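Hi support team,

I submitted a single chain yesterday and got back a structure, but I'm not sure I'm reading the token output correctly. Could someone confirm the output below corresponds to the sequence I sent? I've pasted both exactly as they appear in my results page.

Thanks,
R.
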Amino acid sequence: KGFSVQVDAVLARCAGVYSKTDYHIPPLGLCYIASVLRDAGFSVDVIDCPAGSISSNRAKEIVKILKPKIVIISPGTSALPHDLEFIRGLKKHFDEFTTVGCGTHLTVLPEDGLSGGLDYVVRGEPEITTLNLVRALINGGDVSQVMGVSYLKSGRVINNIKRPLVDDIDEIPFPARDLIKYYHYEPPYSGGGRFTIMTISRGCPYPCTYCSTGAYYGRRVRYRSVGNIIAEMREIKGEFDVLGFWDDTFTLNKSLVMELMRRMVEENLTIPFLCMSRIDTVDEEMLYAMRRAGCRLILYGVEAASQRVLNILNKKISVDGVEDVFNMTKRAGIETAAFFMIGTPGETKGEVIETIELAHRLDPDYVSFNITTPYPGTELYKSYKPLLKRWESFDACHSIDENGAILEEYIGRAYRSFYFRLNYILKRLFKTRNRTNMLLLFRTGFDVMKRYMFRGGVIGG
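Hi R., thanks for writing in. Yes, this is the structure output for that exact sequence:
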């Protein structure tokens, strides 16, 4: 009590919507920014409220102790209202600091943050822009000359010129994981253990109408070198039990993936890992190489069973090859998770049923059904734009239009019809061979029952 120490910047993931999930993913973006700031000589700390079970009031007390000159947040769309409320609450009690926001939503709609209590918004790739902004704020520089920054002047939003993307992302230092080492993170769909994530690239070349990655990191894909990735893996070796490669499409560059897998095996850096992929970017050779290096789970974005719906989403895949890819992945000894979207504009009830039936045929180890959500920065958002402002609903579990109740009912029925199949339950019990995984299985089942058990029967039944 009474103890305080001033730091230059606190990077905070606020309490709120994130706290409602059963597992928490490390805040990689904040850790990258923290690393860049620290390398430049600034003192920093990271507060992860959900992972630390830290309430908003407790977080305010921590901020008071740390006495930062700058508080930085990176809210997702559904978390934005709560995070801005947290910022306003901080300012109400402690007004001797500057607030900065970054992330995809604020990149696209900086006015949302500036009108909600933020002093500055960092647009686009955040590390270098944030560093230059912090330098200007602390050293008395001219913020109007910092590229990629937005702010209010006489009530008007000023958007400084856009900053070019970093060409060589090897130049960005490894994320400051030491600043979050006391928080607990669990891998999704896995049996617990110490978990961290990393990426091997930035950017996405695909034009999917529901994805906002291009608005943040651009369409041009920039890859890290295999040597740089291996160096980061050496740094984390022995500290974690499970690794998540958190690229939108880890398997996009086959030659890079194959070389990385080879080096991981040769240098004794194999670790159980999971990744995300498209069905059109894997083959048998790659899958077996990934399994040898430790791959235990691939999360595939299937989205829909109807080719018409896939075309509306501009997914650029054919539904015909989906079952072959899942079977090939299973033969390689890798578990699968299938992600689907329900509620795409123009989708019919029959097409929803087709998607649920496809999920049954694929028979993945895990499945995720989500409501198609028009996040800011997506093509889908442009068609919904006049209707939107209730950002709390942008969590892929709630619909933002008049069909909300129907879509949420479909989601509930889809989950029940998949997870409550007797053959699925028996298969999972047979495959689950340790206590941690058994507890995870029962927890997942309980959560599905809690959310969906009392919402009716199977669609079409």
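A quick pointer for reading it: The radius of gyration is 22 Å. Let us know if anything else looks off.

Best,
Support desk
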